[in-house]
Amino acid sequence: MSGQGWEGARRPVPIHEHMAIDVCPGPIRPIHQISDYFPRRTPEGGPCRPPTPPPAPPTPGPPAQGPDTDSCDSDDTTLGTLEFDLLYDPDSCILHCTVLRAKGLKPMDFNGLADPYVKVHLLPGACKANKLKTRTQRNTLNPVWNEELMYMGLTAEDMARRTLRISVCDEDKLTHNEFIGETRVPLRRLKPAQKKHFSICLEPQLLPASPSSTSAALRGISCYLRELEQAEQWAMEERGRILLALTYSSEHQGLRVEILRCAHLAAMDVNGYSDPYVKLYLKPDVEKKSKHKTSVKKKTLNPEYNEEFFYEVAQAELAWRSLEITVWDYDLGKSNDFIGGTVLGAGSSGEQRLHWLWCLQGPDRRWEHWQTLSNRLPAGGP
Fold it and tell me: What is the mean pLDDT of residues 276-280?
């Protein structure tokens, strides 16, 4: 055979046949694998078919649930699921949050894993005193914590109006920590003294609406109202709780004030803690002779004092006087930092007024109650 004949017998392969692409007119048909068009031979000589994908595993049915269990309402588990227990003790005013485990978290690091931890935050409330967190579990998408976080000083009114936000984040030492997902539980769903188990799918973070959806004028009004709302929230931002006991003694003709403990105080030092102490004034007090002060508790946001103070005063005078209570962070060699305060008196409002009236109307009886600390003294103080 001549070279010319051999060249003539070897026809060039068209590119569309070489790539196994159908270029015929009409709709493009999907091609899952190019290798499907080039069957290979098995050692026995028969054609080798493309492998058949394994059947999908059967979807498990919903687990049996009792009235004290909440499960994931959505099938979207792309961010993972979180298991935790909630228990509210109305006698001690403590909310127990036990963070159990998470499953199938979204990978956040370059190695396909994450360093997850859980943050718990009471809403409404934007200060650090409301935020608790677990330890960080390293290099896992299925972390197990089994940690109990407690909120002390939650009254029945708090349980009716507040929401618990639980978020899972990925810790990064060199950059900012990354958000993975969250869930929110209205505390009114809990029954007193009854533990409730949750197994819930994490949801993406709630973002504000896009500003392009409103006109320029509405955006301006919206920004103004948002700044005004933030200023009002800052003015009355919660800085923790304080547990007080008031007793008016008819025998000794005076007011006994017990400073029992504080909970979830705002951190004022760089180590994430404070060195708190409590100051008391019975106002009006022009000469400042009514000042009392507790001891300083080092490196804590939940100090326990159990200290008692006495004011010799007639019961009738308390109708126009008020008790100012402030919490401070002690700093050696410089001015102390104000953490929060509250005023109890007939001119106050809310729980401060109720606590004061209970004491006046029920002498010789001990009235113990949690009070909220704000970053400034609320209206009603002298």
Answer: 96
In 130-194, the DSSP E strands lie at 131-133, 144-152, 163-170, 178-186
* pLDDT the model gives residue 332: 87
Return the bridge partners of 336, or none. Answer: none
Is the separation of the CB atoms in 266 and 339 below 8 Å?
Answer: yes
Give one DSSP letter per residue of 325-376, joined into a string. Answer: EEEEE--TTSPPEEEEEEEEETTS-HHHHHHHHHHHHSTTS-EEEEEEEESS
* Start-to-end CA span in the chain (Å): 117
Domains in the chain and their CATH numbers? 69-201 (2.60.40.150), 238-374 (2.60.40.150)
Amino acid at the residue 258:
E
Of 355, 288, 291, the C-alpha closest to 318 is 355
Distance CA 375, CA 31 (A): 65
Residues recorded for the chain = 382
Report the chain's mean pLDDT, rounded to a whole number.
Answer: 80
Of 287, 264, 96, 283, nearest to 194 by C-alpha is 96
Q: What is the pTM of this model?
A: 0.65
The dihedrals phi and psi of 57, each to the nearest 5 degrees, come to -65, 150
Q: Tokens standing for 118?
A: 């859980």
Pairwise CA distance, residues 77 & 83, whole Å: 13
Strand partners, 83: 101, 199
Identify whether the C-beta of residue 294 lies closer than 8 Å to the C-beta of residue 259: yes
Largest CA distance in the chain: 132
Q: What are the pLDDT digits (tens) for 62-117?
A: 444 444 676 655 555 689 999 999 999 999 999 999 999 999 999 998 899 999 99
Got the DSSP string for 54-123? PPPPPPPPPPP--TTEEE---S--SS-EEEEEEEEETTTTEEEEEEEEEESPPP-STTS---EEEEEEEE
Is the pLDDT score of 43 beyond 50?
Answer: no
Nearest Cα neighbor of 327 from 283, 264, 236 is 264
CA atoms within 13 A on the CB side of 34: 6
